[in-house]
């Protein structure tokens, strides 16, 4: 199953986690992997990471990507979130963001938000 990669910020992640769902408006900005290959999934992840950096508007912060199942373009309950990818630490303002993101299981999100 291909995945959908939703760009976010730490503030959006906090909001979605507290609400128990990823809103449909956020899913409209998502990137779907073109196939189930590692390369396809990585390309979608990095496109979403670039979009997350744009959400930061050049400010310091962490790029966040929320991963949900394929074809999810309606509000998605938090239980359907597959994983979260994030920068390990906040990036300095204006950083180019070429680093890979770390993978977090959904049960690790409270620690990520902490």
SSE diagram, text form:
Layout: E1 3-8, H1 10-19, E2 21-22, H2 24-27, E3 31-32, H3 38-56, E4 64-69, E5 76-77, E6 81-86, E7 102-104, H4 109-113
Question: What number of domains?
Answer: 1
Strand content: 15-25%
Number of separate helices: 4
The profile of the biggest β sheet is: 5 strands, antiparallel
What level of helicity do the residues show? 25-40%
Oligomer type: single chain
Q: What is the rounded Rg? A: 13 Å
Strand segment tally: 7
Sketch the topology as an H/E string, one letter per element: EHEHEHEEEEH
N-to-C CA distance: 31 Å
> What does the overall shape look like?
globular
> Pairing-aware structural class of the strands and helices?
alpha+beta
Rounded mean pLDDT is: 89
What is the topology, as strand order, of the major beta sheet? 3-1-4-6-7
Unreliable spans = none
Notes on the structure:
Helices cover 33% and strands 24% of the residues. The chain is an alpha+beta fold. The strands form 2 sheets. A 5-stranded antiparallel beta sheet has the order 3-1-4-6-7. The chain has one domain. The protein contains 4 helices and 7 strands, in the order βαβαβαββββα.
Key phrases:
single chain, 114 residues, alpha+beta, 5-stranded antiparallel sheet, two-stranded antiparallel ribbon
